[in-house]
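Section 3.1 - Work completed
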Amino acid sequence: DNGVYSVSANAYIDLNDLNEAAAIGDFRDGGIVFWVDPADNTHGLVTTVSDLNSGNSITWNNGTNVPGAEATAIGSGQANTTAIVAAQATGTYAASLCDNLSLGSYNDWFLPSSDELYQIYLNKTIINTTSVANGGANLNTLFYWTSTQDSGNANLAYILRISNGNIEVNNKLNVAWVRAIRAF
């Protein structure tokens, strides 16, 4: 069975192309589902099973102002990451770790916006369970970088305290942990 079925004389449907419903905690599309689009439960966001940078903390960037990286909403992390990488270019920093990640057959990873990362916090228990079950690690209990630069001070970007969900500003030259995400 190759999953291709004829539905009329010259029309075919490949069942492998049909989108499947997603649920929080599913391991699919390269990671762990932590947010499902309420308008279409076949699309959403996944996170990696482990922190990037070999589990070590890293800076947001070199302190460069990044116009265009101030969005907070779900769906804005990719654009923020693209802006950060364009402004910073070379080097090893939070957004570059995500932007350069190739995991499985996926190379479209990015640093989550503050609202996207908050969804990881809300679902951290099931993410940890699925991470460990798939060879990964629990979320660190401290701070994770978002891709969201502070709109009032270009020296600051937002972090999320995974223990309580607080979103706080942090100097970009300080260090925090990183989990990449991607859309499916």
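Second construct:
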Amino acid sequence: MKRLISSSPEEQEYIKNIGKNKNKNFLIYCQSVLAVGSVLIFFTFFDVYFWESSKIIPPVVFINLYGAAIVILLLIAKRAKISYQIPRELLWWCLGYLTISLFGFLLLLSFPSHAGEAGFQQLRTRILSEFFLLTMFLIFSKYYQVQNVTRLAICGAVILALFNNILEFSDPSIFGVLNTTGRAAGLYVNPNITGCALILGLIFGISVLPERLRILYSILVLVGVFMTFSRGAILGWFLVMGIFLKVELVPRKQLFIWVISILGVLFIFGPILGSIFNLDELQKSGLVTANFDNIRERLEWFQTPKQEESADARMEVVAIAWGMFGNHPLLGNGLASTDNLNNLGISTHNMYLLYVADHGILGVLILPTLVYAVTRNAQGESKYIGWAFSAFILLWGCFSHNILEERYILMCFALMAAMNRSSRLKIKRKSFQPKQELS
């Protein structure tokens, strides 16, 4: 019996395209499931919270599972003759970061007073962070449908974080005793981390929502940020919103209506709201049991900026780290040299200062070059999101030294890189479309 084949080249091409479309749809589905799962596990900080509260599954297990998943995904794609590519800029940055980290580790060994387990642990953390960054990029890459689903999931994570902040503000023990600041943090444990995650959720979530919901969403983010009393996050909200208003991702007319409405409510019901939200009265009523000492300190700082306990501690470690950089400005002091600056386990609280103390003057370029690598030549809407993302991350580097270790931030770097690549490919496809002749 003869083997039946199509004698028509057009029919063969049609059958081939059907197979490609089925493979493409299957990959989109798999990537979407992995992407939403990554938001639920990593962006919400569930992996860290679950480990800190139960000590059952360490976060590295989730990372390894995702690594295995991406290997399987790539094998399926290879069999279907669908290729995935990592941008050269991102690969070069990872190679450079690994090189400078290895050199910093070797340099650390030449300082007996600094050498120890901390250096090896820091090197391991950086390698794991690069692996995670590239894994997340592959999950988010190639298909804009996956990126949109991820961004919608991030919007959901933002609403969850706001809800958790409200719960913790009313009952600080609801998430255990991991957060002792008296400020809302939810699953993120640290209020500053919560504030940063909310701003990143604003950046990547705002334009995937209908225009009529964008102002409401941004105001909900602001409410959640204010409950963390994170000065960097509050400043970041105004910075990001200023950019979005400038490029009109946020409708200006709607913002004007919202501002007028809120000011009207405050004018009419201000005295009543002031008595309702009086901290002492809330504690007496029993509706809220939070410790307001730290909150009062920060509220006083917002009214009249002055020295306070947390600011004093930060200034102390800044002075120590700056002195270390002054002693070794070219090569630095080696990897993890700033891990325990005042013998209390406190580091610089500043990404740039940490890198120049560890790696010398060139260390100041590490964070900006990664921001450049993931936003370079972005097109269309992704360009504006890239502006907001770049501005906030570069600002946040002045408030945190953990940017390139925290997975919810690394996820956003990967998502930005994937959106950037998709935007450029979309422009290329449009430029190659034949123009219709005018009759």
